[in-house]
Automatic annotation (TrEMBL):
SUPFAM superfamilies to which the protein is assigned, alphabetical: P-loop containing nucleoside triphosphate hydrolases (SSF52540)
TM helices/strands, residue ranges: 6-23
Name of the protein in its database record: Carbohydrate sulfotransferase 4-like
Source superkingdom: Eukaryota
Gene that produces this protein: LOC107224119
């Protein structure tokens, strides 16, 4: 009898895991969302209106049902999770310590970057872990604009803090935009799974707030504010944010942006001199922040992450105070096609994403970017190409970033 019960219990647990795995496979694949702007076209005929006051009993009861189901899913997924329990300066040792619904304080992980700098790859690595609620491009309603100061900065920060508190009540403009760009919620696999099954509540404030409050890990990828603006999040001790600034070789950024029509919508995305200016400002801020917040701020270059993903992700996981969950390892193994373990593999032999620009760009284009970006390239450790044959061959990344 007893053994039989265990047997059926295991079968039940197994099917739950399979179900979750199926969700991951269906909705969690990283290549389904472009970095920005290309997700228009799918309409949500039967989706709830933004800002509607549909508090009908039917709606409330549907929300309640979904929330109860999601709570159980998270609970089951987190059973074997290794909580920090004092490691990494985080005392949490059980789920409710990290869940807003239970008056806990989630682990809040931020990546600040700019368009086409590897942040999609970065974010997807972490959403492979259970318990992650991913605020993907929370400032999409600010358009293709960098946020460098007033008047946009204060509204942007207000929205980011509202999301980090799972308060969607004042985010109608954001939700309006998201509704039109399904890749934004699709980047958040557990949310998207529920939206697929329950489209009529997907954009309901109450649903989103309650859903968000169930998750122990709140991950956010921010593209528009400069680091100088985004650092405000680090100053908020109650949030306890840990923030990574992700940067990339400007030649790689522009090669990648060239093929994105959304980028032509704004000078902030299409003009090299503006990117280069921001890279200088970001560098100066980063030097300051490393002194001011040595344990909650760090920088990362996309090239380093791509060349040694296992090593870099392990460092990031520890920095954020997370557990190196087997799903994360699996994600890296299946999404980085070449063998980093082989000491004879040099990137000169591998066609790898961050370095495509060496073959795709004309030397004249490279020269123009280098002219604009001479100073930030030096700061961030990127080597100028001297001529076309040099460009095709050389290692553009040094392992030296002065002062960082
Ligand atoms: C969706 O986007 C298109 C083009 O960007 C816009 O014309 C349309 O009004 C938007 N629809 C909604 C519901 O926001
Ligand atoms: C832990 O937190 C304290 C105070 O915020 C800080 O000084 C220390 O460097 C942190 N240690 C680690 C390992 O993050
Ligand atoms: C390109 O630059 C390299 C390094 O300075 C030099 O050795 C090589 O001769 C140059 N090639 C051409 C075609 O100018």
């Amino acid at each position: 009898m007893f053994n039989l019960a265990i047997f059926y219990g295991l079968i039940g647990l197994g099917s739950l895991c399979l179900g979750i795995f199926a969700y991951d496979q269906l909705y969690g694949s990283p290549l389904k969302h472009p970095e920005e702007g290309l997700g228009v076209g799918r309409s949500w005929k039967d989706a709830g209106e933004i800002g509607e006051t549909d508090d009908s009993l039917a709606t409330l009861s549907e929300i309640q049902q979904v929330i109860d189901l999601q709570r159980r899913i998270i609970h089951d997924q987190m059973i074997d999770y290794q909580y920090p329990n004092g490691r990494y300066n985080i005392s949490a040792n059980k789920l409710e310590d990290l869940v807003i619904e239970r008056n806990g304080n989630p682990i809040r992980s931020v990546v600040v970057s700019t368009w086409r700098s590897g942040s999609t790859f970065f974010g997807d690595i972490f959403t492979a872990s259970p318990g992650v609620f991913y605020h993907f491009e929370p400032l999409v309603d600010f358009g293709i604009n960098k946020i460098r100061g007033p008047p946009l900065a204060s509204q942007a920060l207000k929205n980011l803090k509202a999301l980090f508190s799972c308060d969607y009540s004042s985010l109608d403009r954001y939700l309006e935009r998201v509704k039109n760009r399904t890749y934004i919620f699709r980047a958040n696999p557990p949310l998207w799974a529920q939206c697929q099954a329950h489209p009529s509540i997907c954009y309901n404030h109450k649903f989103l707030s309650e859903m968000c409050k169930l998750f122990p890990f709140q991950l956010m990828k921010i593209l528009r504010p400069t680091l100088h603006i985004a650092q405000e999040l680090l100053a908020d001790e109650k949030l306890g944010v840990r923030l990574v600034f992700l940067t990339r070789d400007p030649r790689g950024v522009f090669q990648s942006r060239k093929h994105r029509s959304f980028c032509q919508e704004g000078l902030d995305c299409s003009d090299p001199s503006l990117l280069c200016k921001d890279m200088v400002s970001d560098y100066n801020t980063a030097v300051e922040l490393q002194k001011k917040y040595p344990s909650t701020f760090r920088v990362l270059r996309y090239e380093d992450l791509s060349l040694e993903p296992h090593k870099e992700v392990k460092k990031l996981i520890e920095f954020y105070g997370l557990d190196f969950h087997p799903n994360i390892k699996k994600y890296i193994d299946t999404h980085t096609k070449y063998d980093f373990g082989d000491p004879y593999t040099t990137f000169r032999d591998s066609k790898i994403a961050p370095f495509h620009w060496r073959t795709e760009l004309e030397f004249e284009e490279v020269e123009e970017i280098q002219r604009n970006c001479f100073v930030p390239m030096k700061h961030w450790g990127y080597v100028p190409a001297l001529n076309i044959s040099h460009q095709r061959e050389f290692n553009p990344v040094t392992n030296y970033m002065p002062h960082l």
